[in-house]
Amino acid sequence: MALKLEIAQEMLLAAVAVMPVERQPLAHCWQRVLAETVIADIDFPPFDRSPLDGYAVIATEVEQARPDAPVRLRQIENIAAGSVARESVRPGTACRIMTGAPIPPGATGVIRLEDTAVDGDIVSIMAGAGAAKNICRRGEEIATGEVILTAGTVINAGAMGMLAVLGKAEPLVYVRPRVALIATGSELIAVDEPLVPGKIRNSNSYMLSAQVQEAGAQARLLGVAGDDVDAIAELVEYAADCDVCITTGGASVGDYDLIGEVFKKLGVKVLFERVSIKPGMPVLAGVKENKLFIGLSGNPAAASISFEQLVRPVLLKMSGRTNWWRPCVKARLAAPFGKSTGAKRFVWARCWQGEAGLLAEPLSLQGNGMLKSAIAANALVVIPENSPPLPAGTEVEVILLVNG
């Protein structure tokens, strides 16, 4: 009997633990998951600084300046970014200042370069209103003691920059799970081999390697095994240094569905054998010595959907993420879905914002062995179990194929 999807998800999540942590050079941390809370030990900016090229002045002295009534000041210094002023700004004086340079003592505002005219060491201020606003104040973005990033944060470009600002040269991150991928089936050949009658190229391993990496894990492609228990078991044993082992093919009921025999041979404890979803109902899951073993269908669409619903959340948990699920929204079908279904069905779709709300169009070619629709899909339409054919306009649940 097929297990409910939600129960299977819970069982797999309960079977794995979060990975250990390690320090990595910041340059290698993009898309890694932070394993520590980062608290600012500095103010940022660390000093009052200029946001533009111009002149540091006493704001009240120039606030009435206009093109027909300029205020003339004597330039006493030129402050480049990375240097500090040697003199203070006094009434009747100004300092030339570059973007990012510290505001000199005595200055209370900055005039942009375009609003000045220079003659020797005399600078004429042509527009002085708002000069006091042209200062980036110390600590206006970050204050000492402020929590900036928390454990479980996926390090995106902004986090990379902020870690650099705070001097975190080697952040503490979670080790990425290692996932072994094995394709089974005597009909399979390597991607670089010429096709001969009766053979097809191994596409599943490459498809799943992309899904593994998108989930924050490391993919290790171990190749293809024919329909032979010993040959499959040998490749599975090569995955001993991996945290998860995924096979495709040989997971359903049939003369050449051998993953159950492989599990028995290797002493893998079976958690479940079928999950009530379409496509991808044949899923054989087991554990041995705290490692997870998953047998997926050999049909590409079925393998991809099963991975998405069952394996991806597991890898996200292991990677240290705090959110394991894709965003879900409500949308209306832009075209009818003509099939009735018993088990919950996941349909590749294109989702977009229409004038009256979100629309989702099921893509063509949804067969278990078909992969082409996955190229254009940015969403999965969820068809409830025991659903009749659905007309256009029906409100449905849609899983967006973006990170949550």
Automatic annotation (TrEMBL):
Keywords: Magnesium, Metal-binding, Molybdenum, Molybdenum cofactor biosynthesis, Transferase. Residues 180-317 form the MoaB/Mog domain. One of its GO terms (biological process) is Mo-molybdopterin cofactor biosynthetic process. CDD domains: MoeA. Transmembrane segments: none annotated. It catalyses: adenylyl-molybdopterin + molybdate = Mo-molybdopterin + AMP + H(+). GO terms for cellular component: cytosol. InterPro entries: MoaB/Mog-like_dom_sf (IPR036425), MoaB/Mog_dom (IPR001453), MoeA-like (IPR038987), MoeA_C_domain_IV (IPR005111), MoeA_C_domain_IV_sf (IPR036688), MoeA_linker/N (IPR005110), MoeA_linker/N_sf (IPR036135). Its cofactor is Mg(2+). Pathway: Cofactor biosynthesis; molybdopterin biosynthesis. GO terms for molecular function: metal ion binding; molybdopterin molybdotransferase activity. Gene3D superfamilies: MoaB/Mog-like domain, MoeA, C-terminal, domain IV, Molybdopterin biosynthesis moea protein, domain 2, Molybdopterin biosynthesis moea protein, domain 3. Its EC number is 2.10.1.1. It is an enzyme of class 2 (transferase). Belongs to the MoeA family. NCBIfam families: Glp_gephyrin, molyb_syn. Catalyzes the insertion of molybdate into adenylated molybdopterin with the concomitant release of AMP. This is Molybdopterin molybdenumtransferase. The lineage of its organism: Bacteria, Bacillati, Bacillota, Negativicutes, Selenomonadales.
